[in-house]
Each structure stands twice: as C-alpha cells, then as structure tokens.
Amino acid sequence: MRRLKLSAILATLLLTSCGATLRLSGTAPLEDNDGSCGARVLVPNASSSVWIHAVWTGPEAGGDSTFVAKGSQFSFTRQVPSGTYTIRLWASDAGGVGCDTLVTRTYESAPDRPQVAP
Questions:
Q1: Which stretches does DSSP call E strand in 28-82?
Q2: CATH code, domain with 69
Q3: Percent of the chain residues topping a pLDDT of 70
Q4: Is the dihedral of CA 7, 79, 109, 56 positive or negative?
Q5: Residue-range definition of the domain harbouring residue 37
C-alpha cells in the first residue's frame, strides 16, 4: 500500500513539474468582414461584443472561448506540457464566424534553481 501511494505521488509530481504556461493575448476585432478571408471588406461592427475562440494542438490539445467588447484586449493562460503548439484563433458574433489566425509557438518550462556546492 505504501508503494502504491509513493508511486502515485511521484507520478503526480512528474506530470505537474514538466509543464509550461501557454499564454495567448490579443485584441478583439473592431470591424466586421463583409468580404472573404482572402479579400477582406471591412465594415462597422454592428454588435458591441464578440466571442474570441482559441484551439491548440501539440503535446496536449485544448480550447477555450471568452466574451469581450469589440476592440478590447483578451488573453488565455493555461498550464500545458512543454512543446510546440499550433494555435487557431477566431472571432464570432451574431453575424457568424470570422476568419481565423493560425500561429505556431514553442512553450518551455523555466529551469530549476542552481545548486550551490558545499
């Protein structure tokens, strides 16, 4: 029983100590696109708020959304395993789903503290 508890504690430490912080931030669109993603035609945004959606894939996959005022800052922060992630972001409102933005980023954990020799 003791070995099982010790194994569970060590496994938890290994899984939680190898993480990095995925940080995404940006600005919600001020205007709507009345054209296509390839040929944008920007027009005044009729709504006062938009949903910002984020989906990421890499060593771990996930997603989230946040509701923000048009033109305001947004951010997502999640603990994820270190590695390279592909992140897709897009906005939506009553007018539908907007064009997406795709980025690739590498997230790493900070190094452990230095050891001092006796």
A1: 31-33, 42-44, 49-57, 62-69, 73-81
A2: 2.60.40
A3: 85
A4: positive
A5: 19-107
